[in-house]
Every structure is written in structure tokens, then in C-alpha cells.
Design brief:
Structural class of chain A: mainly alpha
Number of domains of chain A: 1
Radius of gyration of chain A: 21 Å
Largest sheet of chain B: 4 strands, parallel
Number of helices of chain B: 12
Number of strands of chain B: 12
CATH architecture of chain A: Orthogonal Bundle
Distance between the termini of chain B: 41 Å
Strand order of the largest sheet of chain B: 4-3-7-8
Shape of chain A: globular
Structural class of chain B: alpha/beta
Strand order of the largest sheet of chain A: 1-2
CATH superfamily of chain A: ABC transporter involved in vitamin B12 uptake, BtuC
Oligomer: heterodimer
CATH topology of the largest domain in chain B: Rossmann fold
Order of helices and strands of chain A: HHHHHEEHHHHHHHH
Strand content of chain B: 5-15%
Largest interface: A-B, 46 and 36 residues
Number of helices of chain A: 13
CATH topology of chain A: ABC transporter involved in vitamin B12 uptake, BtuC
Order of helices and strands of chain B: HEEEHEEEHEHEHHEHEHEHHEHH
Chain lengths: 346, 322
């Protein structure tokens, strides 16, 4: 048990770090805009002061139409991925669960691509792609859970194998769906490769309520996920309706992953790393872990995107490359540690 | 250029590469641009048999004037028709071989490989070609075809002058040297006229969009960059490190090019470009100078490349070419 004081301090620290990374990410980009110029422009937008006269129009456009929405989107997607990872790790009672690793992100991607090919991205309005991504993520999560579970437990090996097998199958189906596409292939590539590029305030505004809904629902399952960590039988004895909890957490984790994927494509490892690192500081209690990852996930993705935008500027890297470079070694470290633990138990 | 097969997750770099190949209309300028890298002559006779070293460095011997030609690139198809031997074509790569229209009636041999970028080897062999003309890339299947006795010849045009050179090379391979010389000199003189006129105008800052989002453009070593340069474009991306780099929209806004060129492969309208976040602040977009460029004309290193150059020059200097 970690003292409430220390927990509060950790949250404050994370909030401060989030604010700082947000500011740095807004201040730094392919084009240099001085912090003072940014502050004056923001003060003007907020109606505090008059428009600074010496600032070129291009700086204003870069700041408000390109950089701020991108950083904001990175924050929203980072929060969704981290929360999704937290829920899946709690559900699988396994620290290696991540929406990308267990195939849920691929499922979401398949749903999105299927809608783009067979319905058209604009046909059903802004929610068609997120909804289809949600359906794909939901089905995949159920499937992987059924496959990975042997008896009462989900072992690391079966979880990873089930995730890899399902993701491979989904990848083939994706290629199949794409071979039916004609003109829409551009929309698909735009969506697969676009990442955090090209999203305006409008599309971010559309996804925020869905993420908020997912976060709220995740918060409501937090207590039951704590009890589930004692084992299904024990949780049931303590009054948890275990099957309902599982269905609910799968739906919540899938919704959050789908929100992230429908906005920014498949970005791996954020959902894996964030809950993991935060457990070291705030413990395994999901009610404490969730607020912490909601602050830390955005920090991670904002900074990863900052690297993606600036490392080769004016060229850009896909943000998923940066998260994978960070996350893959982390994943391998965890895998080895889990292996050693399993051997120690045997 | 062959992407690896099955992966558990779709690999974005692979998709990007495939995308670049598709969008560039199969006209990827290769290797460092150290002058025309055209076939170096080592002809053993004025007529047949003829031996020429291709752009992959392979010496290819053709014994008699080919009567069953297969092309595996729209640009190669256009060259064969321009030399007046289109009736000897028995296979083309696929639906992109659409010029001249007669090419659409020739059998298609493409389609294998993850993105349909490899020829179907069984189909190729069944057509019994006595000349297989293709572009750079695909070393593995080229080796297979050579093992199967198919004379594979690679032309890799690095710039406009090299296109003329490659036209003449195909002329030697097909026994149409006279026509080839005419086509090549016509191409060069047309291009020269355009360049002369463009040279009289100040260079215009411009940006060439291949795709969005993310914003993909062309690097300085590409075939299109060479054309842009000749047409009088001072390209925003002329210091890029990659051939098809992802470009920062922030940088585009700062560089503020006067002309914004969009490959027609990108499939957008000028209005759609203006509606994207941030693009309204680019001078070219605000001034309505967003121009869709027929990518077949500028990305296929074939006989129509002079027309592509003219198209670009007109877009950049409308007054001078009015």
C-alpha cells in the first residue's frame, strides 16, 4: 500500500510533466517559433491581448492549425491507448497485454478498412470509421481472450501466441479486403500512413466524447479488476459477477483502442509501457493506476511524436516507429523477466 | 523493391515503399545521378545478333529482331509503340499500360507478389518472349526469368537525357535504330525548346505533392525532381535525404511556395487541398495556384516526357507559355 500523500505527489508530478511536455511539444517543431511569440499568440487567441503585430501569419497557422491540434491529438490517443492497455492487463491478469500485441488494434484497423472499402469513408459520417473499428476490436478481443485462456488462467505464452496468430490472420484478411478496393486504396493508405498528420480540431472534437466514455467505463470497472487480480474464484466469492466484468472490460478496452486506431492508425507499445511503468510508482490498484496512466500515456505519445516530427526535420517519421523503438526493448525485457519468474515458480 | 512476405502487423515502411512505387507510376529514378547511366555500347554488330549491357550491368544478346516482346513498365510499353513495333508486343505489365490505348488490348502479365509488383513468371514463360523490357528493381524474379531463358533487359532512366538514350537502346534491341534516332532527337529538341523558354524566366518556388496524408513529396534524386528543375522550379524539397520523403506541413507553410503541384495520382481537387488544416496559409493555395499534374506524363520515362516537361513549365510560368 502506498501512502495517499505519496500518491497525490506522484499525480501532481505527472500533471506537471504533462503540462511541460505539452508546452515543449507546442514550442518545438520543424519550424522554430519562439516561446515568447507562442505565448503572445495564445494570449491573443484567448482574448487577453491584441494580436502581436510583428508576428507573421504563417506562425499563427503553424501554431493553431498544425501544431496544437497534433499535440492535442497525440494526448488524446496516448490517453486512450494507455487506458486500454491498463484494462486489458487487468482483464488478462497479465503485464504483457497491449492492444497492439494482442491483435485488438489490428482488428480495429480491419474494421476501419472494411468500412472505407465497402461503404466509403464519408458515407456514414464521422463516426462510421470509429464504430467499425470498435466492432473489429471487440470481436478480436473476445476471440483472443477465448483462445488465450486455458482453464482459469491466461499464460503469457498462450496470450502472445493467440495475439500473434489472430493478428496474422487479420493482416491477411486486410490484404484481401484491400485487393477489392479501387479508388479507395488512397483513403486506406491515407488512414494507415497518416498517423497524427492532417487531423483538424473537428475530428479531434468528435473522438474526445468517445474516449471520455471509455475512460469513465474503465473507471467503473477498476474496483472489480482489483478483485479479479485475486483470481476468478476469489473475485466471485467477493461478489464480482466475473463473466459480466470480463465482457465489460473487453468492451471498454476495445472501445479505447478503437478510438486511438481510428484517429491515428496502429501505434504499438504505449498501452504496454505506460501501465507498467506507473505500477512501479502508484502500485497495482486500478483505481489509482488509471488516473496516473491517463496522465502518463499522453506524455509518452506527445514526446514520441515530438521526436518523430523533429529528428529529421523537415522530413517526418511515423510516430509508431518511435514508440516501437522505445517499446520493443521494454517488451523483450518484460518477456525475459516473466520467463524467469515462471521458472522460479516451477 | 520486393516487400517481404507475411508479417503479423502491417509494416508501415513497406506500405510507404509500395505506395511510392505505385504513385510514381513505376518510374523510380535509381542510384546516384552521375550523368546518364544508360547502357554502355558494346555492340558486336550493326545488326543482329546484338549485345548490349543493360542498366543492371547485365550483357544481353539478342539474336534476331524480336517478334514477341513483353514489357513490364508502362514507360517501356510507350517506347515500343513509339518505335512502331507495338504490334510485336505479346505482354504488358497491367492496367497501367494504357498508352497508346491499343496497349490495353495486350495480355497482362503482372499481378504476383504482395502488391502486384512482380510479373507472373508462368505467364511470361508461356508467352515465349524473345525480349523482356523492364525497369530497375526485382532482382530476384529477373534472375529466375534469365534462368528460364527469357532475355531480360533493364532500362533505368535517371533523367530526361537518359530517356532519349534509352529510346535509342531499345531501337538497337528491336532493329529500329532509324526510328529510334528520330524519336530521341524529337524528344530532346522539344525538351530543349521548353527548357530554353523556362530558362528565360526566374525560377519559381514550388512544391510537388505525391500523397497526403502524410504529405509525401519527391527528393532531389528522383526523375520528377530533374524535370521540375528543368521546368524552372525551385523545389521546397530539393534538400530532402530520401526519394519520397514525408514532409512537414509546418515547413511547407514556412517555405510558402508560389506554385503547388499535385500528382494526379493523389486523387484530389484544388478545393480539397485548400480545405486541409494549415494549407490555406500557403501562398500558392491562397492564390489558387494549385495545379493537378497528369502523373503519367511526368513520371513515365518514355517518349511523352517532353510533353510532361512542357506541362510543368506551363504550370510554373503561365505567362511565358501562354
Amino acid at each position: 500500500m502506498i501512502a495517499p500523500n505519496r500518491y497525490r505527489r506522484t499525480l501532481l508530478l505527472l500533471a506537471g510533466a504533462l503540462a511541460a511536455s505539452f508546452l515543449i511539444a507546442v514550442a518545438v517543431g520543424a519550424v522554430w517559433i519562439s516561446p515568447w511569440t507562442s505565448v503572445r499568440l495564445i494570449a491573443w487567441k484567448l482574448g487577453i491581448s491584441a494580436r502581436p503585430s510583428s508576428v507573421p501569419h504563417s506562425a499563427e497557422v503553424i501554431l493553431f492549425q498544425l501544431r496544437l491540434p497534433r499535440v492535442a491529438l497525440a494526448a488524446v490517443v496516448g490517453a486512450a491507448l494507455a487506458a486500454s492497455g491498463t484494462v486489458f492487463q487487468g482483464l488478462f491478469r497479465n503485464p504483457l497485454a497491449d492492444p497492439a500485441i494482442i491483435g485488438v488494434s489490428s482488428g480495429a484497423a480491419l474494421g476501419a478498412i472494411a468500412v472505407i472499402v465497402f461503404v466509403g469513408s464519408g458515407a456514414l459520417g464521422a463516426f462510421a470509421v470509429p464504430l467499425a473499428a470498435f466492432a473489429g476490436a471487440l470481436l478480436t478481443a473476445f476471440l483472443v481472450y477465448r483462445l488465450a485462456r486455458i482453464g482459469p488462467a491466461v499464460h503469457v505464452a498462450t496470450l502472445l501466441l493467440a495475439g500473434i496468430a489472430v493478428a496474422a490472420a487479420i493482416s491477411s484478411v486486410m490484404s484481401l479486403v484491400m485487393s477489392f478496393s479501387g479508388e479507395q486504396i488512397r483513403d486506406i493508405y491515407a488512414w494507415l500512413l497518416g498517423g497524427l498528420v492532417g487531423q483538424g480540431w473537428q475530428s479531434i472534437g468528435a473522438i474526445v466524447p468517445l474516449v471520455a466514455l471509455g475512460v469513465l467505463a474503465a473507471g467503473l470497472t477498476a474496483h472489480d479488476l482489483n478483485l479479479l487480480s485475486l483470481g476468478e474464484e476469489r473475485a466471485a466469492q467477493l461478489g464480482v459477477e466475473v463473466d459480466r466484468l470480463k465482457r465489460r472490460s473487453i468492451a471498454v478496452g476495445a472501445l479505447l483502442a478503437a478510438c486511438a486506431v481510428s484517429m491515428a492508425g496502429v501505434i504499438g507499445f504505449v498501452g504496454l509501457m505506460t501501465p507498467h511503468l506507473l505500477r512501479l510508482f502508484v502500485g497495482a490498484d486500478h483505481r489509482r493506476l488509471l488516473p496516473a496512466v491517463l496522465l502518463a500515456g499522453p506524455i509518452l505519445l506527445i514526446l514520441a511524436d515530438l521526436v518523430a516530427r523533429t529528428a529529421l526535420a523537415p522530413q517526418e517519421l511515423p510516430v509508431g516507429v518511435v514508440t516501437a523503438l522505445l517499446g520493443a526493448p521494454f517488451f523483450l525485457y518484460l518477456l525475459r523477466r516473466e520467463g524467469r519468474r515462471a521458472r522460479a515458480r516451477a | 523493391m520486393r516487400p517481404p512476405r507475411s508479417r503479423p502487423f502491417p509494416s508501415l515502411p513497406t506500405l510507404a515503399v509500395a505506395l511510392a512505387v505505385v504513385l510514381a507510376g513505376c518510374a523510380r529514378a535509381g542510384a546516384p545521378a552521375s550523368g546518364p547511366s544508360g547502357p554502355t555500347a558494346s555492340t558486336t554488330g550493326a545488326t543482329f545478333p546484338v549485345t548490349v549491357t543493360d542498366d543492371d550491368g547485365v550483357a544481353v544478346t539478342i539474336d534476331a529482331p524480336p517478334s514477341r516482346i513483353v514489357t513490364f513498365a508502362p514507360s517501356a510499353t510507350e517506347i515500343v509503340y513509339a518505335l512502331g513495333v507495338g504490334d510485336r508486343l505479346v505482354g504488358v505489365s497491367g492496367p497501367f499500360d494504357d498508352y497508346p490505348p491499343a496497349a490495353r488490348r495486350v495480355e497482362e502479365i503482372g499481378g504476383a507478389g504482395e502488391f502486384g509488383v512482380d510479373p507472373n513468371l508462368e505467364k511470361v514463360v508461356s508467352l515465349q518472349p524473345d525480349l523482356f523490357l523492364t525497369i530497375a528493381g526485382g532482382d530476384r524474379w529477373k534472375d529466375r526469368l534469365r534462368d528460364l531463358g527469357v532475355p531480360v533487359f533493364t532500362i533505368d532512366s535517371t533523367d530526361l537525357d537518359d530517356v532519349a538514350h534509352d529510346v535509342e537502346t531499345v531501337g538497337r534491341l528491336t532493329g529500329t535504330t532509324d526510328t529510334a534516332a528520330e524519336v530521341a532527337s524529337e524528344l530532346l529538341s522539344q525538351a530543349d525548346q521548353v527548357e530554353q523558354r523556362a530558362a528565360g524566366e526566374p525560377a519559381v518556388s514550388c512544391f510537388f505533392e505525391v500523397f497526403y496524408p502524410p504529405l509525401l513529396t519527391v527528393g532531389p534524386d528522383t526523375f520528377i525532381a530533374d524535370l521540375l528543375d528543368r521546368a524552372g522550379c525551385d523545389s521546397v524539397s530539393d534538400h530532402a535525404k530520401a526519394d519520397y520523403p514525408t514532409w512537414s506541413v509546418e515547413d511547407l507553410v514556412r517555405e510558402d511556395p508560389r506554385v503547388y503541384l499535385v500528382s494526379s495520382e493523389s486523387g484530389v481537387t484544388a478545393r480539397a487541398v485548400a480545405a486541409r488544416p494549415g494549407f490555406g496559409a500557403v501562398g500558392a493555395v491562397a492564390a489558387g495556384r494549385v495545379l493537378l499534374i497528369d502523373s503519367d506524363l511526368v513520371s513515365r520515362p518514355g517518349p511523352r516526357i517532353a510533353a510532361g516537361l512542357k506541362l510543368l513549365a506551363e504550370a510554373l510560368h503561365p505567362e511565358a507559355f501562354a
